[in-house]
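[User] I have long wanted to understand how a fold can be written as tokens. Those tokens are not coordinates but codes from a learned vocabulary of shapes. Could you go through the record with me and say what the backbone is doing? Thank you; the sequence and its tokens follow:
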Amino acid sequence: MPIALIIFFTLFFSIGILLVSYRVKKEKKRRTEFTRVAEELGLSFSKKSDSAFRKRLKKFDRFATARSKKHSYHANIGNVLRDKRHGVEMVFFECRQRWEDRGTMDSVFYFRSPAMNLPQFSLREMLSATQLFLGFMTGNSGINLENHPTFSERYYLTSN
């Protein structure tokens, strides 16, 4: 085997190890910060979501399991902060689709209460060009709050 090929594979392998160790270190730092925030606010913390919570999230398309012929994909949920006060379950977590290895995690705030009769809604941070495109494609430009124009410019709110 030529020496150049050995050097190439050694460098390739070394760079791979460095990238993986950087990502692990970054995730550990985030987890430590989430643990600190949970303690400070009196919330429970877990690295991953439990199966009962995952089951409740299945009705939301963003968290449903997607299947192809060879693979099954589902949302990668981590850094879960939880609390239940006054009958309201509140969960804050980070989420990335399993097949999306790059980019940032989405931050999600989930709350549920049998006492509250709220419509199902979705709120996403959006660039105005994206909002216009989605409005054109779906016929839904989102809900604009007249008293809060800055909010309406920055976020895409939809509801049933």
